[in-house]
Amino acid sequence: MNKKDCDIVKDLAVGYAENLLSSNSKNFVEKHLQNCDECQKYYKAINSNIFNDSTIEKNKDKIEIDYLKKVKNHINVLKSILILVLIFSIVIISLLTIKYCTISNVINKAYSKIEYMRNLDNYKLTKRTINKSFSDSNNSFDVTFTYYYKDGKYKIEYGDNSTTYLEDDGYNKICVYDDLKQIEYYTQNFVEIKKGAPINIFYDILNYKKLYPRLYILGLSMRNDSFEGKDCYVIRNGNEDSYKDIWIDKATLTTVRTVSEEKSKYYTEEIYTFEESATTDEDVDNSILNTEKYQDYTKLEINNNATEEIELYYELLDKNGRY
Ligand SMILES: [Zn+2]
Questions:
Q1: 119-202+254-320 topology per CATH
Q2: Residue 258 CB burial class (10 angstroms; 0-12, 13-18, ≥19)
Q3: How far is the CA of 56 from the centre of ligand 1 (A)?
Q4: Does residue 146 contact residue 126 with C-beta atoms inside 8 Å?
Q5: pTM exceeding 0.90
Q6: How far does the centroid of ligand 1 lie from the alpha carbon of residue 82, in Å?
Q7: What separation in angstroms does the CA of 80 have from each of 72, 90, 306?
Q8: CB 218, CB 100: distance < 8 Å
């Protein structure tokens, strides 16, 4: 065997193993390998090394691919979470927007109704208050106020035995006490009542509309319920243990009831009726006090000159709603 050939074959062995040789060189190497044990051994050793190298290379690639796959999976999981969070946020924001719009819409409509009622020239308004105090039974009561209003004149009945006659922007007031059999004629230096002032009795709606920030609406809740056969929106401020519910008649958009309760402390219910054009001239005519029925009543003339503070108080009441 030519020793020089062996050197050449060893030089070419790597190229042969990786199949990179020209066909002449390849034939030459093959022929030599068939006849030379030494070169055969050398070639086998190189070939297995190359094979090992390529497996390691392949393994490395595999590890890299696996890693990339893992990263991709992580990214996919993050993407899914992000999409879920996004969908969740959109759902929540939509629900809040719907809630805000629904409650605002009812408050706005009820407020417009109040504005309308204020300008009426004839109505009858009653408010019955039922109060139960669980800590102090002396503080429990059930009383009804009735406001008769026609063309600037009022008759206001407080419970069973007290009646007041007065006029819009007027300086006179007459109070009748049936239990005392007494009539008091007041001359005042301030205006006690302005047109539409009794309508401020619906101060809850006024407060929601005017005083609270807009986002406060989201703290309220609304449900549908019926009261005395009337379908109502019920707007709740508070929770199970302490709340105020305002019942708004869906047909007339007038407040027909409020319920406030603090569990085991008190329960207050106010029931309202409002009738347009239900007051007659006789209802608000104080000349009835000159009739025989009132002959034996004591009559008092009272000069009720109020301080500036009282005038301001009445002005504020008219602005923010009477309680
Ligand atoms: Zn050889």
A1: outer membrane lipoprotein receptor (LolB), chain A (2.50.20)
A2: buried
A3: 30
A4: yes
A5: no
A6: 67
A7: 12, 15, 72
A8: yes
Residue 43 CA to ligand 1 center (angstroms) comes to 10
Q: Is the pLDDT at 294 greater than 80, yes or no?
A: yes
Average pLDDT, the chain: 90
Cα 1 to ligand 1 centroid, rounded to whole Å: 6
Instruction: State whether residue 239 is helix, strand or coil.
Output: strand
Token pair in block for residue 154: 């009022």
Cα–ligand 1 centroid distance for 24 (angstroms): 17
Ligand 1 mean position to 7 CA, how many Å?
A: 7
How far apart are the CA of 12 and the centre of ligand 1, in A? 12
* Residue 53 CA to ligand 1 centre (angstroms): 25
Mean pLDDT of 289-302: 93
Q: Could you tell me which residues come within 8 angstroms of residue 35 by beta carbon, excluding any fewer than 6 positions away?
A: 1
131 contacts 117 by C-beta, under 8 angstroms? no
pLDDT 10s digits, 33-58 = 999 999 999 988 888 877 677 777 77
Going along the chain, which residue ranges are E strands? 122-133, 141-150, 153-158, 162-167, 172-177, 182-188, 221-227, 230-239, 242-249, 255-262, 266-276, 298-304
| pLDDT tens digits for range 210-246 | 877 778 888 899 999 999 999 999 999 999 999 999 9
Measured in Å, residue 18 CA sits from the centre of ligand 1 at: 19
User: What's the CA-to-centroid distance between 39 and ligand 1, angstroms?
Assistant: 5
Q: How many angstroms does the Cα of residue 34 sit away from the middle of ligand 1?
A: 9
Ligand 1 mean position, distance from CA 45 (Å): 14
pLDDT at 323: 40
